[in-house]
Amino acid sequence: MVEVNTGYPRSLPGALKIARLVVAFITFVCFAASKSHEAFIALAVMEFVITVLFFLLYLLKLDKKMKFLFWPLADIFNSLIAVLFFIIVCLCAIIIKTTTGTLVGGVFGLLLVGLCIADSVLLFKKITFNKPRGRNVITR
């Protein structure tokens, strides 16, 4: 049976993920409604889907069950790559500004960049690289 972490959506990391979902969806809607370049739309959809998957991973506590990958680090890498791509795409969308929707989508994309950076910093603070984790400590 899958266990649900009911406190996660109310926590700061959960609220950041929800904010990222909302802003990514708004970015997608703006780009799609203005018939922007396909790359703009695809990037917004991919970010939305990946964020939904990470949100469900933490909400359903699947990160505790699937230990073959260190999920917070994968989440940080995803956020940083999203920042890189969204800076490039959204600056292009703002500079091109073929329609108002493209401009608004670019602005929301830059807002999403800020949320991704905040999420990365928050996750990075939780990761301990040089400290032992849990029961795997060798005692002498």
From TrEMBL:
Pfam families per the UniProt record, alphabetical: MARVEL
GO biological process: lymphocyte chemotaxis; macrophage chemotaxis; neutrophil chemotaxis; secretion by cell
Annotated signal sequence range: none
Chaperone found in the keyword field: no
Residues that span the membrane, as ranges: 18-34, 40-60, 72-96, 102-124
Listed GO CC annotations: extracellular region; membrane
Positions in coiled-coil regions: none
PANTHER family attached to this UniProt entry: CHEMOKINE-LIKE FACTOR (PTHR22776:SF45), MARVEL-CONTAINING POTENTIAL LIPID RAFT-ASSOCIATED PROTEIN (PTHR22776)
Protein name as catalogued: Chemokine like factor
Source species of the chain: Chelonoidis abingdonii
Origin organism lineage: Eukaryota, Metazoa, Chordata, Craniata, Vertebrata
Gene name linked to the record: CKLF
